[in-house]
Structure formats: structure tokens, C-alpha cells
Write a structure and sequence with these properties.
By secondary structure, the chain is an alpha+beta fold. The protein has one domain (7-90). It is 29% helix and 42% strand. The protein has helices at residues 62-81, 83-90; strands at 7-13, 16-21, 24-31, 34-39, 42-49, 54-59. Strands 1-2-3-4-5-6 form a six-stranded antiparallel β-sheet, with helices on one face. Strand 4 (34-39) and strand 5 (42-49) form a beta hairpin. Helix 1 crosses helix 2 (83-90). The chain is globular and about 50 Å long.
Amino acid sequence: MGYFRFRKTFSIFPGVRINLSKTGVSSSLGGHGATVNVGKNGPMVTLGVPGTGLSYRTPLGWALFGALVVIAIVVGIAYFAAPDSVRALLHWWQPRWF
């Protein structure tokens, strides 16, 4: 038997999102290829290959999560100063398939 699902996502900054669903609220940090999500199950990291549908998800420790949040804040501040430079730095590793 099927069931209904609901999810609404709001983007706060580039790469930072708030997710609302019928089961709760969570936040996501990252983009294609690597995302950190914090919800009722604690911090989780998802690593994937963009465009393939393949991904791996695992729990993330709170200490490492805190370090990632600090890095994200620094990158967010730098994004306001030089958005093109930060965008190029964040996407240097992505293959140019598409």
C-alpha cells in the first residue's frame, strides 16, 4: 500500500538549505557530490557521483561536523567578497561532462 510524502526545501545561501517534511525539519550543507545533512538522526554525510544516481551515506561525528560548519561560514563570508573566485575554487574538481 502506498503513502503520501511531503518535502519543501528553502535555499538560504548557495549550498545551504532548510528542508521541511511531515516527519520534521532538517538542514543541508553542500551541493552535487557531497552534502552534510543535520536532522533528527544527527549529522549525516552523503557522497555521490553527480549524474549517476550512485551515492553513499554515513553518520558523521559532531566534532567533524563542527569543523565543517566553521569552514562553511568562512567560505560563505568569502563568497560575498569574491563570488566568482569562490565558485571556481569549489568546482575545480568537477569533471566537465555536461
